[in-house]
Amino acid sequence: MNTANPVAAPSKRKPRWLWWLLLALLVLGAVVGFAAWYKFFREEPQPDWVTATPEMRFKYGSIGAENEAGIPYWIFYVLPRMFPEKLPGPGGYAAFGVAWEQGQELPVGFTKKVVGFPRVANTCATCHTASYRTSVDGEPTYVVGGPGHTLHLSAFFRFLVDAAKDPRFNADNIMREINLVTELSWLDRLIYRYALIPITRKRLMEREPQFEWIYRDDFPDWGRGRDDGMNLTKYFMLELPMDDSLGATDMPSVWNLKKYDRPGTTMNFAGDSHDAYSVIIDSALGLMNAAPKSNEDFLGHVRWMQEYLSELPPPKYPFPVDAALAAAGESVFTRDCAACHASAITGTRQPLAGIDTDRARIDAWNAQHAIAANRVVTEFGIERKGLVEEDLIGYNPPFLDGLWLRAPYLHNGSVPTLRDLLRPPAERPSTFWRGYDLYDPVNVGFVTSGEDAERIGTFHDTAQLNNGNGGHVFGTTLPEQEKAALLEYLKTL
Amino acid sequence: MSGKIRSAIARLQAWFDRLFRHRWLRCTLLLLALPTLLLAGFALYGLWLFTRNVPVTYADPAEHFKYGSTRGEMASGLPYWIWQVLPQVCGQHLPDPRRGYASLGLIYEDGRDLPIGMSKRNYQGVDRTFLNCSVCHTSTWRETPGAEPTIVLGMPGNRFRVWDLQRFLFACAKDPKFSTEFVVPAIDRAMRERGERLGLLDRYAIYPVAIALMRERLLMLAGRFEPLMQYPEWGPGRVDTFNAAKVIFNFPMAALPEHEKNAPSDFPSIWLQRPREGMQLHWDGNNTSVEERNKSAAFGTGTMPSTIDVAAIARIEDWLLTLEPPPYPFPIDQAQAARGKTVYGEYCADCHGAGGRDFSGAHVGKVTPLAGIGTDRRRLDSYSRDLAVNQSTLYAGYPWRFTHFRKTDGYANMPLDGLWLRAPYLHNGSVPTLRDLLEPASGRPRSFWRGDDVYDRHKVGFVSDIDERDGVRLFLFDTSVPGNSNAGHEGADYGTDLSDEDKDALVTFLKTF
To answer: Which of A232, A206, A233, A380 is CA-nearest to residue A293?
Structure first.
């Protein structure tokens, strides 16, 4: 420009090299853009075996939680090896009491799906698959739709946060572990080192303040088989400040959902949601931790799941039943129990007075919470009857299908066995260990003491917040023979 | 455009010309060029050195089995020269310092610098060595104390003391002598003795770093393994297989329930794998896939999913499909064997196969529940279901991800090929000879000596009643130690109620396997 050729000709024709440069940049941009889409966002369907049967689909099929809540597969893979001291015991992820079928790469309720890169996320089956064994040396039986009474969910949540907080959670250490177990391409190594590891760390650490209440020293832990769903909704979906409530309740069974189709029934222990469709949506949204990518796909999956669970039968009691005794028990049931548990009021909202079980769960939720949560879901563009926009008044008398597998009992799992439930509160065990899966056919429930139960289970102290075993004194004064007969009958439900 | 480039080059040339008119500049540049070239040379050499990955391999599968690499040295290799001088540096941690590595039961062939079961590879500029499959699956027998031992590939490594090898390495890593000051001069001398020279780079850079890295790694392994070593030692020929497998996952071993800990069991023979395909393999029958079982065992040789030499393993795998055990080398009383054959057919064949090569039988390769077999339960208990499901994650992302591991409730019925070389007997090696196994547990030796290779043809097994051989102390096996019980596999169904004549005849027949 400083030569003798002044601005003379901003020639109509731009220099050709500029065109070439532009073209090259465009091509480069397209390539980079495609690569970024391919490496971070392309979705690959799960392999065929996952959707081969409805049961497999429920156990291992993605509900779309990989997008926002998914953890990069290889990070998920090496975490238990790197931080075994943060697990509840030896055994990798098995230590959390997940249902893990032999030969499967991941436990039930854990999905592996490629969204750009393989990710691990969860499904409803994580919490709604029950495990029981009929003998110490026996193989566990997994019951789809049953309560995940062995699952230590709060420990799993804390594990991920605590691992991310650990200074050893860095690219050098994680890549060293990953490189021992797989051969990533150089590009994937770069992506892991400079994107996935730091982003995962950040995302997991962001959860810490929202999980503050499961770290509180003055609160009892949820323990195995329990989940504080209402507070999860408050702190994650509504992003409300922490209050002093604790509402951990047993993971419920989700088989035979069609029983809730009857008008007037409401869902969950305290009747806080209108129908099964809404509960599935809200629970799934909780797992996804974000709005669905496509409402159409999401709701299609929800409807499929509702259909599947509606027809899913409760499991049969796996030990012999004394038919004559059970028949005698049926008349006791009809006389003393059916009015609440097999009648028009079953599954409907009832006041706490008269039942008098632990009230902490109903104190953890109110009408404002319901209104706010319904608004969020509506803003996602999802229509559903949704949460009941009223304060909670008590607990719904539950349907008793598959009752034998739903131990421990009461909404907060504070009574280990059905036999204990037929004792006056003062005579029920004040402490026990929950989450061990060896069945106790004598008392109808799981074994809650002894070396193995105490090693594997978590300690439940009924004197602590939300853990009370009072109330529901119905049947506690029956003569022993009638109790025995009733117990026998309850096995058959 | 080309005209512009030409003029630019011309200008550049002119600029250089002007520049080089100064002599001082020419000299300076020349002086600078020399070190630059030197540095570039070094860099290239370093690149060549540190990207080297050259294994020692053998065309003959038997040789490769003995000395060939399956790439365990990459992730787990010990620098070859450090390995060679360790007995001089910290030999006091060996069972018998005077005998060096031979006191670990490692077998040295004439003219070999490494024992059977150790392979070599130059990786990142350092010769490295580590164990391969044959270290646990090769051993020797002798007819008489003075005779030359016969090496048998594929037989249980019943003299190899892996417990002592672990203890030696971990103790060395903690020894103050495991340092550059002691190790490097020892390497220097050892290399001179072999007519080699320790290079400057090796002396001042590579070995000091290698020593530090090796110590760090050994201390890490010690931290993981030592909770397993708080128990009476396993003795030769045994390993706590599936507690070691838990170490892969970094299970906190100290936190394991007591009944899972300390479950040493015998190394098995690995002949004739083809007819075993589909059987419940391992002592407790926890896997029905030969290839998966092999890859699982290969973790013990230091291979990782990302480093395993699948082709080398496959070569050995193929060779083992049909590898036969050697025939019994002493005369067999044919009349007695014929009588024993009848007894065998009646009592043993259903579970152990029609013969030494015919593995057909209703229960062969299947698990008999513990309540039926009644042998020591620790090995069964050590294999937890939690471990089984974790093993299903091994080789994730590869087509051969493990899918066959299952928790069982007993011990698997093994085919009996080459049985004469598989003493001591039962999964935990608690019964020294076949003849002892035919007595009820109360009549079996309560303690005996393991690790001899002199053969006892009367009882069929190795000599087990003397405490040393050629001045080398053998290992006292005490059946009262937890995990060592010699009970079970007894009663009418198991032949312990037979007449002495029938028992002798049966033992004679089993020599033909």
So the answer is: A380
Residue B31, both tokens: 């002086």
In a domain, A206, yes or no: yes
DSSP helix/strand/coil, B158? coil
Residue A53 and residue A35 in one domain: no
What ipTM does the predicted assembly reach? 0.92
Q: How far apart are CA B203 and CA B213, in angstroms?
A: 15
3-state secondary structure B453-503: CEEECCCCEECCCCCEECCEECEEEECCCCCCCCCCCCCHHHCCCCCHHHH
Residues of chain A with confidence (pLDDT) below 50? 1-4, 6-8
The domain of A38 spans 15-42
Domain shared by A429 and A285, yes or no: yes
Q: What does the alpha-carbon distance between residue B247 and residue B225 come to, in Å, rounded to a whole number?
A: 7
Return the DSSP state at B201: H
- Domain contains B93: yes
Q: Which residues of A touch B249 (CB under 8 A)?
A: 80-81, 84, 92
Cite the beta strand spans of B132-236 per DSSP E.
138-141, 150-153
Residue A94 lies in a domain: yes
Q: Domain for residue B122, yes or no? A: yes
- Note whether B406 contacts A102, CB cutoff 8 Å: yes
Query: Hey, how many other C-beta atoms are within 10 angstroms of the C-beta on B195?
Result: 6
Q: What is the mean pLDDT of chain B?
A: 94
**pLDDT tens digits along B297-348:** 999 999 999 999 999 999 999 999 999 999 999 999 999 999 999 999 999 9
Nearest CB to A180: which of B75, B392, B405? B75
Structure tokens at A265: 């029934």
Q: Are residues A102 and A243 in the same domain?
A: yes
- Is residue A197 situated within a structural domain? yes
Q: What distances in angstroms separate CA A198 from CA A166, A172, A377, A382, one per listed residue?
A: 13, 11, 30, 33
Q: DSSP string of A352-373? A: STTT----HHHHT--HHHHHHH
Average of per-residue pLDDT across B474-486: 96
Centre a 10 Å sphere on the Cβ of residue A205 and count the other Cβ atoms it contains: 16
Task: Label residue B471 by pLDDT band (50, 70, 90).
Answer: confident
The pLDDT of residue B116 is above 90? yes
Q: Does residue B94 contact residue B110 with C-beta atoms inside 8 Å?
A: no
What is the residue range of B210's domain?
Answer: 54-135+162-233
The pLDDT value recorded for residue B200 is: 93
Q: How many domains does chain A have?
A: 2
pLDDT digits (tens, 9 = 90+) for B78-103: 999 999 999 999 999 999 999 999 99
- A114 lies within 8 A of chain B by CB: no
- For residues A212 and A304, state if they share a domain: yes
Residue among B257, B304, B305 minimizing CB distance to A455? B257
H helices then E strands: how many in chain B? 19, 16
Which element (helix H / strand E) includes B410? strand B410-412
Q: What is the rounded CA–CA span in Å between residue A181 and residue A165?
A: 24
- Domain annotation covers residue B403: no
Please report the pLDDT score of residue B215 as a whole number. Answer: 95
Query: Residues 409 to 438 of A: which have CB under 8 A from any B CB?
Result: none
My answer on whether A371 and A302 are in the same domain is yes
**How far from the centroid of its chain's Cα atoms is residue A303's Cα?**
18
**Region of A9 on the Ramachandran plot (φ > 0 left; ψ -120 to 50 alpha; else beta):** beta
Q: Answer yes or no: is B346 within a domain.
A: no
SS3 A122: strand
Is there a domain that residue A392 lies in? yes
For chain B, the domain total comes to 1
